Amino acid sequence: MSKERKLTFNTIDLSEDEMYKLLTGSVIPRPIAWVSSISKDGIINLAPFSFFTVASRNPPTLLISIGPGVNERMGSIKDTLTNIRELKEYIINVVPESLGEAMYRSSANVEPGKNEFELAEVTVQNGKLLNVPAVLEAPISIELKLDQIIPVGVDHLVLGKVECVQIDEAIYAGNYKIAIDKLKPLASLAGDFAGLTPSFAYKLKGT
């Protein structure tokens, strides 16, 4: 691919939506954090976020980025962020291909207090260490306590320390490893989703 054929987009010339499209189409694939939380009034919530990664191995810390509400809830604070701020604990459920449609249903913009577990047609499972519901059908559920919330522009980086991990025996490969081919994780693209092609490894010359 020659340099002459490359297009250049300067941030200063783009709208927020235009830059968002470029970034979410470039930084792919992204794992999906299906976050379950609970409000101070006991209302449970379930919502997916694709700005998600490991932030630290020691202490084990995960990062999700939560943006403002969209469409009819444009600019509002999402229930997930409010719940995490107030209760300081939450669960990240890993989404396999088989739960893709359920996850997508839970992403709908609904009124506060709506039970997204029912919307997604998944089962509530009590957390092992935390008073937060997990998705029973999810092959991996990671329980976290809030470490800190960092505002970045219009978004908020949420850092949570891992308290425990629940893993379905069917996708556990032993020796603390996950059988990725059995997990079949779902990836977020630029508005679409994808599974994984057969995995492979690179080998450096001389090794």
UniProtKB/TrEMBL annotation:
GO molecular function ontology, one term from the record: oxidoreductase activity
Residue ranges of domain Flavin reductase like in the record: 25-178
The enzyme's E.C. designation: 1.5.1.-
The UniProt record lists the keyword Signal: no
Signal peptide: none
Coiled-coil portions: none
Cofactors (names): FMN
Record keywords, A-Z: Flavoprotein, FMN, Oxidoreductase
Source organism, top-level taxon: Bacteria
Similarity comment: family membership: Belongs to the flavoredoxin family.
Name of the featured protein: Flavin reductase family protein
Species of provenance: Paenibacillus yanchengensis
